[in-house]
């Protein structure tokens, strides 16, 4: 390979090893060797190296993204990245972090970022035990196709590497030339595959064939072809950094450590000691990723390659106009509904005060029948899919309510959190189609599910069922409900009677427009917001006057108005509520009220 | 050991081959036999783990041996098995020839031995333990004779008497006696506990040389308990204590301890071969000199010894899970008596040794993966939860001491913090502010709720009469006045509470019901909401929509605080010492100020009078409140909510504060407070007597004075004060008055009238009715002949209206008046016509 002594891409472990040796003062020739226990839970410089490589040398784009497609050719022990949602946490794992080489009793080796030690490790050797966290990640649920990171962004790299690999196959030399031959060969799988002449160490053959062979697969839904879960091992980062349902990009060392699963332990006793979860996750289905760098992804991180633009008011207004026109067209020329839809798409939970989630604006379009939903619903679904990174649709039929598992549930047999439909990352969009609901009786699951839906809309919280107790998890999901009358199962913040005047389908927007709109929706959402003291006075006076006039107005209505005010001003790219925006809120509310009559 | 016991066993074994399986049967065997059993127990990891192999390799070793070798154990029991063990079991001792592992033998030779890798002398530890057992005295016992036996010596005697198998040693005792020993025990539990066992056996054999059971030590109640989340590599091989919930138990696994092989050629039985590092070495050839047949030995299952073993998974309790995390779990290894000690769902506190074993790459390979599986070798398990129903004696006095959920533990730091808080002069206001901070206004209601949370002292007189300490509150109000939010909030805050809605509750659902167990067919009593919220708060929303039947059940609960059941062969009285917090909507959706509370909410007065405080939360068309609402909402949306909420105690602290106060503070009435109560009560009663007025208004009833006492006790509790002071009483009066002014004010006169609550009719109303009655009587006397023709009611009404000067008279007033006259036998009422008789 030449060049630098290490290749972060194809031999990250080598880089790790080098930095480790440097850190403990092995290579420098100095007499004093730092005891590796000093590095427990700490980085010794490897991180910096990778950060530099990824972000300064823009190596990030060259790192292949792990998905079923790339899985076929990505190499064992090479650097990959993986985008996914943390679906479950499997606790901590202890491993031999550093140990003394038996050949010469003085040199230390590290096992960080790998599962199997690269050097033979005899049982009674001097070791340091460190820990790492296990996270079970799944691809972001409901992710739109445009939001998926494109894997052909490195077209130059992959064929080249394929070629390189082929060449190496010929020589039968492992690309990780630092790894002693005998050690790698001792793993039966690699040996076998090499004998078979199969493409190198690629795990592809066992990927799909064995997928269904393992018994007790409770999470079957994740083993389909386009859905690649990943077991991410996190090193040295505080627990509060990574939370359940967060979407992350993990960059790290990929291992297909086949041995653990292949060798079912003979000893029944110690088998019961295995983390049950791991037994149900053979590495041939769930690759392991030893994470070196991870970063949280927000909505705008999904925008493929768009430059970070300054949200300038005039630019924003232009885009807003265009998007509004598009939404109006999609909604059959119903301008009021389009207005509310736009605000709805921009809503997000800003803060929580006790149980109140501030900033949410769930929308209920009423007056829809089964037929009109089939027209507008599908149209909207497509629109959302092209605009939002994560969307999901929930057909609320009686059967669905009675059978679906909306909230995640812990299965103690497998020690896994069985995902529910409502385990969604922050900022997801959820459409609930209630028009298909017919009268009938709900069973206990159905009742539980309606309760969960109601809780979600009212408090933006989902109760996860841990059987012996329930744990409330905060959610931030935009809810759009289609129904004939006002939905009681999902009591939305805004109820808008839908009155389309045209049926003809809207034109398909051009790609640039779509991109601009995506950028708009992602950026404007997170604008800060404030209110001037004068405006505050006006708003307060208006609220008081409204309440004096109509006693039925409550805090919920006021809250909705203020949310709308905020959304209107940020939809125009402003960060401060102005009188004009407030008038717009009142006007919109008036129009809505008229329709409701 | 093998050398002394096994021959005996060999001779004796065949006669009772089953014995090896049925260890709990104590009567089958010869002493030798028993001793062996005892030793088998000794080999549970807690004790036998005494093998301190070279330190770094320990992990690797324990890796392959979840059940550690018991080689040293045997060597170390000089008292019971004087023959040195090494000879008998060369295989096991040879593996770890060196240091302290053979401490037992070495000790006899009085050479100083050390726990491997440390400078802890085995002899020192042994001495320390001996001293501890012999000399430790429970400081609380305050026994006068210093020469009496120590706590643990007595315990040993007791164990010997009942032939027990272990003694529980409180780690606090160890710490108090010898903190150095405690620290050593925490850091080197395997070694120290093994020595502990040896010492124990020495003592046992001194007391009763014939006692041949092995007595184990079980440490519990450590100084500090770890959170499951914080277990880290440095805790490996240390003693830890954890709290959690059992979520899964494996089936019981018989684990082989000793194996006996038989030669199929000559029938020779081998000596029992003990487990060594999780493995049994099978002899490859017959050991009998004459036979020596190769590969002829088979396992004789009947003569092998097995021990119970179970793997249990423990999960974090919900309160330990950080935001955005999932609960952690940890595996526990239970042996012998600990098996089945916890069932899934139990909250337990576990003391044990945190251990790790490495994962083998494969059964055939020597290389070890770099991973470890961790588990806890359980030494002691304590259940934390008592069942709510069975915990207490039905008529036991509420000392308040058991009031708190058992989960809430207070460490000293927290207590200090709470006490500091209680010393603040404005703690009452501060707590009020912190109660449902997003519901503004309603300060007096919140103060009332606060009192309910803290509660008064229950009292049982020697005569058997009991007074409840729980404060019941009713909130009546217009829709949209955040009553339900308040209820939800209190439900969340209350140490124990049930939230139910009146519409969805039936009488049995609230109290208790008898059900048939589907499996056994037995009738069982299932408790309802009120019983479940015993010593807590039962929140009932939509109280007005509750069926009358269900509501009538509340009578008993709210004053007697019990639920009596007599059905299906079960007659029982269950405790329901619960505070009731109910909220109701007015019957005509909006409160009609012209009607009384009773008319507005359609609740029977008998029930209403059982509420200590009744608050009317009315939505007045008041610009001031509207403005405040507007301000509040605007600030919610625009301001940094943290700033808006400053100076507010967070929910966790508030809960802790309430729990602590309920548990530890039991205020008594001071003399001056009592005087003030009497004075105030008399004054309240006096207010009903208007000078020169014939109207007798009852402004206070004995129920009120009870309420007042409860309220002032609660107020004292809020201040963490053991004495009810003057100011508490004054505040209690104020609270009661505020509540009464709202609910018991007679709207026609503006004075407080308890009759409104107790009978639903105010005194002025009664007077008016009387005047209508007398007027009607006069008219009938005038107009109607005795036995003459009947008159229609409407005609009478016309007459009345003509005669009466002031005040309107309605038909229904007249109707009630005529009905009264009819009951007097003065007139007869047929439909609408009145006839004099």
Question: Gist?
Answer:
The complex is a heterodimer of chains A (597) and B (837). Chain A is of the alpha/beta class and 597 residues long.
Outline the secondary-structure elements.
The complex is a heterodimer of chains A (597) and B (837).
Chain A: H1 12-23, H2 46-56, E1 79-100, E2 108-110, E3 127-138, H3 157-171, H4 181-186, H5 188-196, H6 204-209, E4 230-234, E5 247-255, H7 259-262, H8 268-271, H9 276-279, E6 288-296, H10 313-330, H11 335-346, E7 351-353, E8 356-358, E9 363-366, H12 370-387, E10 391-395, H13 398-403, E11 409-411, E12 416-418, E13 428-433, H14 444-459, E14 461-465, E15 470-474, E16 477-482, E17 494-497, H15 511-525, E18 530-531, H16 533-549, H17 555-571, E19 576-577, H18 579-596
Helix pairs in contact in A: 10-11, 10-15, 11-17, 17-18
Chain B: H1 2-12, H2 31-42, H3 45-48, H4 57-64, H5 71-75, H6 90-95, H7 103-109, H8 122-135, H9 151-161, E1 166-170, H10 171-177, H11 179-187, H12 189-207, E2 216-220, E3 239-249, E4 253-259, E5 261-263, E6 273-274, E7 297-299, E8 305-315, E9 329-335, E10 347-360, E11 368-383, H13 412-423, H14 427-434, H15 443-454, E12 459-460, E13 466-467, E14 473-477, H16 483-493, E15 497-501, H17 507-510, E16 512-516, E17 523-527, H18 529-532, E18 537-541, H19 548-560, E19 562-567, E20 570-575, E21 579-584, H20 597-601, H21 605-608, E22 613-617, H22 623-638, H23 641-644, H24 651-664, E23 668-669, H25 671-687, H26 702-718, E24 723-724, H27 726-743, H28 754-758, H29 763-783, E25 791-792, H30 793-803, H31 811-824, E26 827-830, E27 833-836
Parallel strand pairs in B: 1-2, 9-11, 14-21, 14-22, 15-18, 18-21, 23-24
Antiparallel strand pairs in B: 3-8, 3-10, 4-6, 4-8, 5-7, 8-9, 10-11, 12-13, 16-17, 19-20, 25-27, 26-27
């Amino acid at each position: 390979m030449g060049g630098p002594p290490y290749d972060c891409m194809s031999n990250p472990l080598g880089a790790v090893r080098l930095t480790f040796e440097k850190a403990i003062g092995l290579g420098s020739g100095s007499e004093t060797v730092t005891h590796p226990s000093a590095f427990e839970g700490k980085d010794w410089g490897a991180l910096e190296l990778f950060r530099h490589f990824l972000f300064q040398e823009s190596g990030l784009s060259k790192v292949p993204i792990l998905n079923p497609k790339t899985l076929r050719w990505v190499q064992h022990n090479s650097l990959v990245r993986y985008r996914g949602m943390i679906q479950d946490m499997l606790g901590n794992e202890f491993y031999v972090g550093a140990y003394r080489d038996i050949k010469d009793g003085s040199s230390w080796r590290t096992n960080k970022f790998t599962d199997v030690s690269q050097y033979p490790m005899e049982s009674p050797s001097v070791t340091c035990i460190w820990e790492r966290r296990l996270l079970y990640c799944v691809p972001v649920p409901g992710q739109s196709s445009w939001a998926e990171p494109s894997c052909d962004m490195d077209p130059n790299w992959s064929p080249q590497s394929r070629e390189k690999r082929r060449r190496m196959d010929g020589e039968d030399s492992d690309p990780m030339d630092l790894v002693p031959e005998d050690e790698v060969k001792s793993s039966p799988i690699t040996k076998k595959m090499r004998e078979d002449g199969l493409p190198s160490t690629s795990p592809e053959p066992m990927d799909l064939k064995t997928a269904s062979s393992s018994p007790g697969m409770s999470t079957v839904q994740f083993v389909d072809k386009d859905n690649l879960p990943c077991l991410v091992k996190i090193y040295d980062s505080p627990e509060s950094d990574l939370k359940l349902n967060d979407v992350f990009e993990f960059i790290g060392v990929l291992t297909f450590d086949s041995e653990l699963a292949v060798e079912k332990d003979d000893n029944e006793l110690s088998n019961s000691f295995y983390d049950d979860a791991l037994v149900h996750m053979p590495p041939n289905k769930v690759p392991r990723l030893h994470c070196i760098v991870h970063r949280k992804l927000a909505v705008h991180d999904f925008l493929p390659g768009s430059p970070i633009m300054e949200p300038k008011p005039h630019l924003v207004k232009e885009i807003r106009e265009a998007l509004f026109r598009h939404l109006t067209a999609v909604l059959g020329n119903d301008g009021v509904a389009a207005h509310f839809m736009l605000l709805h798409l921009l809503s997000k939970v800003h803060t929580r005060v006790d149980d109140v989630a501030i900033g949410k604006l769930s929308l209920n379009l009423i007056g829809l029948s089964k037929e009109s939903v089939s027209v507008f619903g599908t149209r909207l679904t497509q629109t959302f899919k092209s605009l939002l990174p994560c969307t999901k649709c929930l057909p609320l039929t009686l059967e669905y309510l009675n059978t679906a598992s909306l909230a995640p549930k812990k299965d103690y047999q497998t020690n896994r959190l069985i995902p529910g439909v409502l385990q969604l990352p922050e900022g997801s969009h959820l459409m609930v189609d209630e028009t298909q609901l017919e009268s009938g009786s709900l069973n206990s699951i159905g009742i539980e599910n309606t309760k969960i839906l109601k809780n979600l809309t009212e408090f933006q919280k989902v109760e996860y069922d841990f059987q012996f107790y329930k744990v409330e998890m905060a959610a931030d999901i935009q809810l759009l409900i289609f129904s004939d009358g006002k939905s009681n199962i999902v009591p939305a913040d805004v109820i808008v009677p839908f009155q389309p005047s045209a049926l003809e389908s809207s034109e398909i927007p051009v790609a640039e427009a779509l991109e601009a709109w995506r950028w708009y929706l992602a950026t404007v959402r997170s604008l800060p917001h404030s209110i001037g003291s004068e405006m505050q006075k006006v708003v307060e006076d208006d609220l008081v006057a409204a309440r004096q006039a109509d006693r039925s107005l409550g805090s919920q209505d006021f809250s909705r108005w203020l949310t709308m005010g905020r959304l209107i001003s940020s939809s125009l790219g402003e960060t401060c509520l102005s009188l004009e925006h407030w008038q717009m809120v009142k006007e919109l509310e008036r129009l809505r009220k008229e329709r409701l009559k | 050991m093998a050398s002394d016991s096994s021959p005996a066993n060999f001779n004796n074994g065949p006669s009772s081959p089953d014995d090896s399986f049925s260890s709990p049967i104590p009567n089958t065997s010869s002493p030798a036999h028993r001793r062996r059993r005892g030793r088998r127990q000794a080999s549970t990891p807690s004790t036998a783990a005494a093998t301190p192999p070279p330190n770094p390799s320990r992990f690797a070793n324990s890796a392959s041996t979840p059940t550690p070798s018991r080689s040293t154990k045997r060597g170390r029991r000089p008292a019971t098995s004087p023959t040195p063990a090494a000879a008998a079991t060369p295989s096991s001792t040879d593996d770890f020839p060196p240091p302290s592992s053979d401490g037992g033998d070495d000790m006899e030779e009085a050479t100083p031995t050390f726990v491997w890798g440390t400078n802890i002398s085995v002899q020192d530890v042994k001495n320390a333990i001996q001293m501890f057992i012999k000399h430790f005295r429970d400081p609380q016992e305050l026994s006068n004779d210093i020469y009496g036996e120590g706590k643990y010596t007595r315990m040993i005697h007791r164990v010997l008497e009942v032939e027990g198998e272990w003694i529980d040693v409180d780690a606090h005792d160890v710490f108090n006696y010898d903190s150095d020993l405690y620290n050593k025990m925490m850091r080197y539990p395997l070694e120290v506990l093994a020595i502990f066992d040896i010492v124990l056996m020495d003592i046992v054999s001194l007391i009763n040389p014939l006692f041949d059971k092995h007595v184990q030590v079980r440490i519990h109640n450590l100084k500090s308990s770890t959170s499951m989340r914080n277990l880290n590599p440095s805790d490996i091989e240390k003693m830890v204590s954890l709290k959690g919930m059992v979520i899964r138990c494996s089936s019981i696994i018989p684990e082989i301890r000793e194996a006996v092989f038989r030669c199929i050629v000559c029938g020779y039985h081998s000596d029992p071969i003990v487990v060594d590092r999780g493995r049994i070495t099978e002899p490859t050839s017959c050991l009998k000199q004459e036979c020596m047949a190769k590969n002829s030995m088979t396992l004789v299952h009947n003569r092998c010894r097995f021990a119970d073993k179970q793997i249990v998974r423990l999960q974090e309790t919900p309160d330990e899970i950080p935001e955005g995390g999932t609960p952690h779990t940890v595996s526990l290894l239970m042996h012998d008596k600990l098996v089945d000690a916890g069932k899934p769902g139990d909250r337990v506190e576990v003391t044990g040794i945190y251990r790790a074993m490495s994962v083998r790459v494969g059964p055939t390979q020597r290389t070890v993966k770099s991973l470890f599986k961790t588990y806890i070798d359980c030494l002691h398990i304590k259940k934390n939860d008592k069942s709510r129903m069975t915990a207490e004696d039905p008529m036991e006095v509420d000392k308040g001491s058991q009031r708190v959920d058992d989960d809430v533990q207070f460490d000293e730091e927290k207590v200090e913090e709470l006490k500091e808080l209680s010393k603040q002069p404005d703690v009452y206001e501060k707590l009020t502010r912190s109660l449902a901070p997003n519901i503004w206004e309603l300060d007096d209601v919140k103060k009332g709720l606060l009192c309910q949370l803290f509660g008064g002292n229950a009292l049982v007189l020697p005569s058997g009469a009991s007074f409840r300490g729980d404060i019941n509150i009713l909130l009546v109000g217009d829709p949209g006045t955040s009553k339900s939010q308040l209820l939800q909030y209190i439900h969340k805050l209350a140490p124990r509470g049930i939230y139910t809605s009146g519409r969805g509750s039936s009488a049995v659902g609230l109290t208790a019901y008898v059900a048939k167990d589907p499996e056994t067919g037995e009738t069982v009593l299932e408790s309802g909401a009120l019983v479940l919220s015993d010593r807590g708060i039962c929140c009932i929303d939509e109280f007005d929509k509750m069926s009358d039947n269900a509501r009538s059940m509340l009578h008993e609960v709210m004053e007697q605080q019990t639920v009596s059941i007599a059905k299906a062969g079960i007659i029982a009285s269950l405790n329901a010492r619960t505070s009731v917090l109910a909220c109701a909507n007015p019957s005509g959706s909006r409160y009609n100020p012209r009607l009384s509370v009773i008319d507005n909410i359609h609740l029977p007065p008998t029930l209403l009078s059982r509420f200590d405080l009744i608050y009317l939360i009315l939505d007045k068309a008041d610009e001031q409140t509207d403005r405040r609402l507007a301000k509040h909402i605007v600030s919610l949306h625009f301001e940094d909510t943290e700033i808006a909420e400053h100076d507010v105690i967070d929910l966790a602290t508030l809960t802790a504060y309430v729990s602590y106060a309920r548990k530890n503070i039991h205020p008594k009435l001071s003399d001056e407070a009592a005087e003030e109560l009497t004075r105030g009560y008399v004054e309240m009663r006096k207010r009903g007597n208007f000078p020169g007025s014939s109207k007798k208004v009852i402004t206070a009833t004995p129920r009120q004075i009870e309420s007042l006492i409860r309220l002032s006790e609660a107020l004292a509790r809020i201040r963490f004060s053991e004495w009810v002071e003057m100011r508490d009483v004054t505040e209690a009066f104020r609270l009661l008055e505020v509540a009464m002014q709202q609910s018991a004010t007679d709207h026609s006169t503006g004075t407080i009238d308890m009759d409104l609550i107790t009978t639903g009719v105010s005194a002025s109303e009664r007077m008016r009715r009387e005047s209508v009655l007398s007027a009607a009587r006069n008219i009938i006397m005038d107009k109607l002949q005795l036995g003459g023709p009947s008159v229609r009611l409407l005609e009478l009404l016309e007459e009345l209206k003509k005669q009466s000067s002031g005040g309107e008279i309605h038909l229904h007033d007249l109707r009630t008046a005529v009905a009264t006259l009819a009951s007097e036998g003065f007139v007869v009422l047929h439909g609408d016509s009145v006839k004099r008789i």
